[in-house]
Specification:
Number of domains: 2
Low-confidence stretches: none
Largest sheet: 8 strands, parallel, barrel
CATH topology of the largest domain: TIM Barrel
CATH class of the largest domain: Alpha Beta
Number of helices: 10
Oligomer: single chain
Bound molecules: iron/sulfur cluster
Shape: globular
Mean pLDDT: 91
Radius of gyration: 22 Å
Helix content: 25-40%
Distance between the termini: 37 Å
Strand order of the largest sheet: 1-2-3-4-5-6-7-11
Number of strands: 20
Length: 403
């Protein structure tokens, strides 16, 4: 059985380190100004160089997202940074625009082109068209079933990648003007305000002016466009058998906790499949899904992977994101008898917390006392500070804490 690459989002440097720590084979990340997640943090050119060096030292891969739909002025700016990017030798660049593809082929021919899901590739003719155009990998549109994906893989001469987890659009793989129309923020330039998740109350048919069809379902109104999140975990065996090259987790704007735990769960699922087989994997699915629901989510759907999404793929009642655990911080040092925790939240003595580390390690800990790094006892640990917890913990550096 050939296990596909596990590809995780890296909104910034520390999320990249966490993704690799928890088992990602590769990350995708954005350059400031040029990716479709303009609010994700993203990397400067200097940070990008460091990130690629860091990843390659671990024998991991970095793909750069250059998938905005650019104006002529953007093309000029992009052209000016291409020599620098080219020299860094990233493992791929994710593009969506034919002009950018032409530019990169001309000015940076050593860069391996990955076609973004924004190109909506759904059929083998498109796959071979883009292959002939110099594209080495296609991130398939999300509107495909596992059978259709298998069929495309069997006919494709280039690598194919599929999304397995994360937020979904109600538009065709992100091609949407709802956000631009409602809030002036252009989803095609990385600024989506998620207007599809807002509350909509009435529907008017064009020919029946002033005649409103109520679509309200209860006092909360109705969220007619509000898709649940993609979760392909139960379909991992079928996706692995399809021969697809890469499995992608969405979420460059999501937290360190999301990146670490989601990567850990899918790595665990793939390891079970490889080492223990499908029956053991099926047994593990409920536990793995439980763990996925401990990080921010809107409920789960397999979307198009099992055919046309059914009515239960949407959350019509509310757009609330479930986030049952508060992220506490990251373990930055471990010694005999203590760990240092970089806090992202308040920590008080007496609280029960959970330490999470790669390999699906979960460790419940009752905090007896919180100390600063000079071992002075604190009333509580403040977000942003580094605190010491005494004890012999299994989790190590790079592990995460939550409560
Ligand atoms: S508004 Fe919704 S459908 Fe449109 S791009 Fe944003 S998330 Fe996707």
């Amino acid at each position: 059985m050939k296990i596909p690459e596990l590809l995780a989002p890296a909104g910034n440097f520390s999320k990249m380190k966490t993704a690799f720590h928890f088992g990602a084979d590769a990350v995708y990340l954005g350059l400031k100004h040029f990716s479709l997640r303009n609010f994700a943090g993203n990397f400067s050119l200097e940070e990008l160089e460091e990130a690629i060096r860091f990843a390659h030292n671990l024998d991991k891969k970095v793909y750069i997202t250059l998938n905005m739909i650019p104006l002529s002025s953007d093309i000029k700016e992009l052209s000016s940074i291409l020599p620098a990017i080219s020299k860094m030798e990233p493992d791929g660049v994710i593009v969506a625009d034919p002009g950018v593809i032409a530019l990169l082929r001309r000015e940076a021919p050593n860069l391996k082109l990955h076609l973004s899901t924004q190109a909506n590739t759904l059929n083998s003719e498109s796959v071979s068209f883009w292959g002939d155009a110099g594209v080495k990998r296609i991130v398939l549109a999300r509107e495909l079933s596992v059978d259709q994906i298998s069929d495309l893989v069997s006919k494709s001469k280039i690598e194919l990648e599929v999304f397995i987890h994360g937020a979904l659009c109600i538009s065709y793989s992100g091609r949407c003007f709802l956000s631009l129309y409602m809030s002036g923020r252009d989803a095609n330039r990385g600024e989506c305000s998620q207007s599809c998740r807002w509350q909509y109350r009435v529907l008017e048919e064009a020919e029946r002016k002033g005649e409103y069809f109520p679509i309200e379902e209860d006092d909360n109104g109705s969220y007619i466009f509000n898709s649940k999140d993609l979760c392909a975990l139960p379909l991992l065996p079928e996706l692995v058998s399809s021969g697809v090259h890469s499995l992608k987790i969405e979420g460059r704007m999501k937290s360190l906790h999301y990146v670490g735990i989601t990567t850990d769960v899918y790595r665990r699922g793939l390891d079970i499949l490889l080492n223990e087989g499908k029956a053991a994997f099926r047994m593990a699915v409920p536990q793995l899904i439980r763990e996925l629901s401990r990080v921010s989510n809107r409920g789960f759907t397999t979307n198009f992977l099992k055919g046309k999404p059914q009515v239960d793929s949407y959350n019509f009642d509310e757009c609330a994101v479930s986030n049952p655990y508060a992220f506490l911080g990251e373990i930055v040092e471990k010694n005999n008898g203590h760990i240092l925790l970089h806090l992202k939240n308040t920590l008080r003595p007496g609280e029960t917390i959970e330490l999470c580390d790669r390999g699906f390690l979960r460790e419940e800990v009752r905090v007896v006392s919180v100390m600063d790094t000079d071992e002075n006892t604190l009333d509580f640990g403040r977000s942003g500070t580094i605190v010491r917890l005494n004890g012999n913990f299994q989790a190590g550096i790079g592990g995460l804490a939550r409560k």
